[in-house]
Design brief:
It is a single chain. It is built from four helices and 18 strands. A hairpin with a 2-residue loop joins strand 8 and strand 9. 11% of the residues lie in helices and 44% in strands. It is mainly beta. Strands 1, 2, 3, 4, 5, 6, 11, 12, 15, 17 and 18 form an eleven-stranded mixed β-sheet that branches.
Length: 236
């Protein structure tokens, strides 16, 4: 995960109804994320040739007040996968923003202490790349750390219009993380996400993290039709 500080104005078109931006030390962050789906089931069913596959996405972080508590979640601006059927299912079940492109990944030892992980996708005939060298030593996420802010978002939110939002829960154990060195992001940002993102995603990331994943459950979404947030969200 490569995390970049951005101007909050560029996220306004993507901000779902009844959510507010979730800030880290006053900063608005977006994340470029590469990972593998493994042993995937949709509604309990494994679809042939759609069980193990790559995903690269661009996300940002929000909060939603449900009348009792603030829920911390993520909003996906774009999600890339290699199979068109995945796009069809995810965009219909969760109202996500998937697109299908040719993809590949690689895992290679750098030395005895580090491994390089690389995710690539082909856009207009050119391979784009998200990669980094990662320590082989994993540690627990520390409370109140930058890693905790990024990884501890257990809800997804998608806009369904001016006064309607899709909310779904993501369940998984607390992950372990490893130090990242030499992050790489080489991509046609303007074509992928629009010109507004170019000045921010073409610079050095604010931070870079790697997590050892786990089994996850993504629950079926529900609609939010009423904004119950108090006048001001809690400060961080």
């Amino acid at each position: 995960m490569l995390n970049y500080e951005v101007d909050p104005e560029i996220l306004k078109p993507y901000l779902p109804f009844a959510t507010v931006l979730d800030l880290y030390q006053g900063k608005v962050l977006v994340s470029m994320v590469g990972f593998m789906f493994r042993d995937t089931k949709v509604l309990g069913v494994k679809w042939p040739f759609h069980v193990n596959f790559e995903e690269v996405n661009l996300r940002f972080y929000v909060k939603h007040f449900d009348g009792e508590e603030w829920k911390r979640g993520a909003v996906f601006i774009s999600e890339i996968v290699p199979k068109s059927l995945i796009v069809l299912v995810a965009n219909n079940l969760y109202k996500e923003h998937y697109r299908a492109l040719p993809m590949r990944h690689a895992v290679a030892a750098v030395d005895g202490d580090h491994t390089q992980y690389s995710y690539e996708w082909k856009l207009k005939g050119t391979w784009n790349r998200l990669a980094a060298n990662v320590s082989n030593q994993f540690v627990p996420i520390m409370p109140d750390s930058a890693e905790e802010f990024i990884f501890e978002h257990y809800w997804g939110y998608n806009s369904l219009g001016d006064q309607k939002t899709m909310e779904y829960q993501v369940e998984h154990i607390r992950w372990q993380v490893a130090e990242v060195k030499e992050p790489i992001f080489e991509a046609d940002v303007a074509e992928l996400y629009g010109e507004d993102f170019v000045p921010f995603l073409k610079g050095a990331p604010f931070s870079a993290f790697f997590a050892r994943g786990s089994e996850i459950n993504v629950r079926i979404g529900e609609k939010i039709l009423v904004d119950l947030a108090p006048p001001k969200s809690p400060s961080l």
